[in-house]
Amino acid sequence: GTNISYINSPVDFGSEVDVNVHDGAELEVNGVATVQGGTFNINDNGRLDFDGMLSIGSAAFNDASDAGTADVRFDGITTYTSGTIDTTVPLAQYADATVNGATVINGSVVNLDGGGTTTVTLNDDLTINADKLDSDGNKFDGTLNINNPGYLQVATTAGSWTMAGTMNLDQ
To answer: Which of 58, 60, 70, 167 has the most CB atoms within 10 Å of its CB?
Structure first.
């Protein structure tokens, strides 16, 4: 079975933090979390799961496994505050998210629509550079709200992506 460690109180991950999630383990952050840098290494069958509200700027999520079976989930309401997120681990946004500061996400799989019901609201710029937008392709199934002056730029390895959900543009 999976070994789960919990953080149930508010936590602030600063720029100097190094977090390691070992083989078959899960770190579940249930309290309000702030991520303003740091390195998060996730091993085989490991999971880093932010279940509480999350405020994130910059971070590095590294797949430290041989099998490529690690994952990172944002299951709590998320605010992207400004910064660069680099990830070699599949990143999935399962709760609604708001981009309030210019954010760049570079990664292998950057799945911002979770299971397809997620709403992402851009109040500032979001740039995604990813191999794929979903584990099985390049489509966004959720709701995307782009408010002035928000701007979306997406670059995938395939060169294109599909808006398969709802987009509301307020420019």
So the answer is: 70
Task: Measure the CA–CA gap between 47 and 106, rounded to whole angstroms.
Answer: 19
Tokens found for residue 145: 């709200």
Say which amino acid occupies 39: T
Q: Which amino acid is at 137?
A: G
Phi/psi of residue 14, nearest 5 degrees: -85, 180
Q: Give the dihedral of Cα atoms 93, 83, 50, 128; nearest 10 deg.
A: 20
The structure tokens listed for 8 are 């149930």
pLDDT tens per residue, range 13-60? 998 999 999 999 999 999 999 999 999 999 999 999 999 999 999 999
Most distant CA pair in the chain, distance: 49
In terms of Cα–Cα distance, which of 122, 162, 164, 161 is closest to 145? 122
- The answer to whether 10 and 32 have CB atoms below 8 angstroms apart is yes
